[in-house]
Amino acid sequence: MSNTNYILGSFADPDEMMHGIDKLQANNISIYDCFTPMPIHGIEAKLGVKPSRLPIAAFCFGTLGFLLGFSLLYYTMAYDWPMNIGGKPSLPLPNFVPVTFEVTILICALGMVATFFFRNHLFPGRTPRVMDLRASDDRFVIAIDARENTDHAFIDSLLKESGAVEVKYNERKYVSYE
């Protein structure tokens, strides 16, 4: 059994990487992910990445912030300690707008930061999983799951034909507890 987790094709040019994606997909080889030092227009559609659901989370956090802000003001101004200030009603809705708006923005922003860290597994103490260090500098890397795609020689040849500068095999590291 092979210890290889991923096959990494490293490209020097983004157009060659896009050509490599086309070649791999034409041969029904599933791509795990692509790592690039800059955003590449159209790569999400080519890889079949679904649209983000972050706007739904932002709406939910915003609604929660609105409810928390308004209920805090309602509880303090109209229910717990109603006061007659200058003959105004104890539930002055126009006066609630600034505080409710600020609490909505605060809860939405904090919730989105927490969602980002949770979704990307960036919690404290986690060791980062780095496929290739040069992917954040000057290389465009295609990662192919080697366990799903078993014909490694064919994948290697496809990557080299499409312009890969280097093809590496990312292997498992077993820890011995003896």
Task: Give the arrangement of secondary structure elements.
Blueprint: E1 4-11, H1 14-26, E2 33-35, H2 43-47, H3 54-80, H4 93-119, E3 140-145, H5 152-161, E4 166-171
Antiparallel strand pairs: 1-3, 1-4, 2-3
What is the helix/strand order? EHEHHHEHE
Global geometry: rod-shaped
| Total beta-strand segments | 4
- The unreliable regions are 174-178
Keywords:
single chain, 178 residues, alpha+beta, four-stranded antiparallel beta sheet
Describe the structure.
- It is a single chain.
- With 178 residues, this protein is of the alpha+beta class.
- It contains five helices and four strands; from the N terminus they run βαβαααβαβ.
- The chain has helices at residues 14-26, 43-47, 54-80, 93-119, 152-161, and strands at 4-11, 33-35, 140-145, 166-171.
- A four-stranded antiparallel sheet has the order 2-3-1-4.
- The longest helix is centred in the middle third of the chain and has 27 residues, at 54-80.
- The chain starts with a strand and ends in a 7-residue tail after the last strand.
In short:
The chain has 5 helices and 4 strands; from the N terminus they run βαβαααβαβ.
